[in-house]
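ESCALATION

Customer reports they have been waiting on this structure for their group meeting. Please prioritize. Original submission:
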Amino acid sequence: MLRVTAARVPDKTALVVASTGEKFTFATLDREADRVARGLAAIGVTKGDRVALGMHNVIHFPFAYFGILRAGAVVVPLNVMLTDTEVARVLDDSQARAAISAPPFADTVTRGAADLDVRVFRTDSWDELGSLEGAAPDPDLSEDDLAVLAYTSGTTGEPKGAMLSHGNLLANLDQQMSIPEAHVTDADVLFLALPLFHIFGLNVTLGLLVMNGAKGVLLERFEPVPALNLIQQNKVSVIFGAPPMYTAWCATPGADQYDLSSVRLAISGAAPLPADVLREFRDIFNVEIYEGYGLTETAPTLTSNRMTEKPRPGSIGKPLPGIELRIVDEVGNDVELGDPGEIIVQGPNVFKGYWNREDATEQVFRDGWFRTGDIAVQDEDGYLYLVDRKRDLIIVSGFNVFPSEVETALLQNPLIAEAAVIGQPHPYTGETVKAFVVLQSGKDTTEEAVIDDVQRHLARFKCPTSVEIVDSLPHLLTGKVLRRALRAS
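Update from on-call: job pushed to the front of the queue and completed.
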């Protein structure tokens, strides 16, 4: 995809680095991807090998991403908020041959790889990789071959990699290009503020930019006021964002003084968008936000409010072309219109399963349909509305947090006898993690001490922001903690 676009518009600016204003053409992206591919080939990376990629939104990210793919290898994106231990788990589980990382996260990756046979390349020593002049790789790839192994936290606290093929990623790009009046063109300027290690940022923003030869403004870290200035100065036409971004912009003093008239399309995904934020953003900036819904496992987009003439607040819209979507009951029968049920889907963008997790893969597929675990209703006009999650997933700023992973980390504290966590609404991050803990007999601690301890084991977004010390937790007869009762307390 990059090779084709670079041949068509080699001298066109592909990316502008927000922090420096430095511009990079598609020809440069193509050349640097080649350097990465040859360097990886020189250390023996071949088709199907896994190569981890851990960095913020810096220019080396697209260099490395397309270079890894060009080598025929599989990209393993690393969330830059992970700890050493979490990075080690992903590197070990994926059996990564190498990792490419940029400071400051490179230090974490280096420590995570210390006890593993993983060659770590750092962008502050970029010439080390570029100087490894191996033969230009020419892997015999098909659409069925793996492109990305995207990790989401496992329900048992272990990492779980969603296997996305080249065909999955390309299919979802084609599906998004079929959305009426929402497709990206080479005349567009895209705002790349979403983290590229997240599937939304990776395959929607970066993927659509390269596929269509658009221009992108690459933002390493999101801050509301500088971001508004960048949109205004660069005449950004397409914003791909998440609810915390739009919420922050609405709360910015003097927000209505910024000129966003160049923006023709604003998309929100990764987490539910509050209806009042949609309305407030429209009132302040005269820009409509179109909400979408999807999962890592679907590469990622399944539905869009842009599939309709006018978005309905609170709705995730309708399925993209080529996606079959049903709402079913516990036994797999279609529910009556207006009744809640689980969203199940089929389509060329649906992943191949979980890496080395046949049991987990079998659990989410039923007769060829992928079970999302999300509960929705559909109105008489076909609009979908999310109402609940079948699993106890917590979504913080668009990132998945599984309660059991946090509970496992809490229980590493010798003062804690039992722990349970739930998600609570948060005006900025959508949800936040709250923990309930029972202490060991005769022991004492504080909320602050518990939070400090768990931060040693987990990325900050997974850590509780509040801890309630209680005498006991509610249980089912089976002994399982009744999280529903905690949410109601």
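Sent to customer with the following note: The longest strand covers residues 416-426.
Escalation resolved.
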